[in-house]
Amino acid sequence: MAKSIMHNKQDRTCYLCMLLNGDCDTRTGLQEHHAMCGTANRKLSEHYGLKVYLCLDHHTVGPYAVHNNAGMRHLLQENAQKIFEKKY
Q1: C-alpha atoms less than 13 angstroms from C-alpha of 67 in its C-beta half-sphere
Q2: How crowded is the C-beta side of 84, counted as CA atoms within 13 Å?
Q3: Contacts of 69 (CB under 8 A, 6+ apart)
Q4: Mean pLDDT rounded to a whole number for the chain
Q5: pLDDT digits over 6-27, tens only?
Q6: So what's the pLDDT on residue 8?
Q7: DSSP string over 4-49
Q8: At 7, phi and psi to the nearest 5?
Q9: In whole angstroms, what is the distance from residue 14 CA to residue 58 CA?
Q10: What proportion of the chain, given as a percentage, has pLDDT over 90?
Q11: CB of 80 closer than 8 Å to CB of 36
Q12: Do 18 and 24 contact (CB within 8 A), yes or no?
């Protein structure tokens, strides 16, 4: 498993809480999310470290969760693209 180039897991912060609200509080129960969708793209996300750590509200549960909200999903994908282009 590749280390994320987008977000440091050891910070124990939610990537979207920080990005959207400036909330850098530590969280428990964070879940890993691959920025690129689909089986093939998930493998590429893993390979290149295009993944972030999200609280439940931003991952699967809330209205702003990436699995429920296309706008949030696209925001993550755009950020992943920019970070990928800077690194590679």
Answers
A1: 14
A2: 16
A3: 63
A4: 94
A5: 999 999 999 999 999 999 999 9
A6: 93
A7: PSS--GGG---HHHHHHH------SS-EEEESS-SHHHHHHHHHHT
A8: -160, 135
A9: 8
A10: 88
A11: yes
A12: yes
Question: What is the number of other CB atoms lying within 10 angstroms of the CB of residue 7?
Answer: 26
Report the percentage of the chain scoring pLDDT > 70: 99
What single letter denotes the amino acid at residue 75?
Answer: L
Is the pLDDT reported for residue 1 higher than 80? no
Average pLDDT on 25-52 reads 92
Rounded to an integer, what is the distance from CA 6 to the centroid of its chain?
A: 8
Give Cα separations from 85 to 1, 9, 29 (angstroms): 20, 21, 30
Instruction: Provide the token pair at 2.
Output: 């590749």
Which three-class secondary structure state does DSSP give residue 53? strand
**Quick one: pLDDT at residue 38?**
82
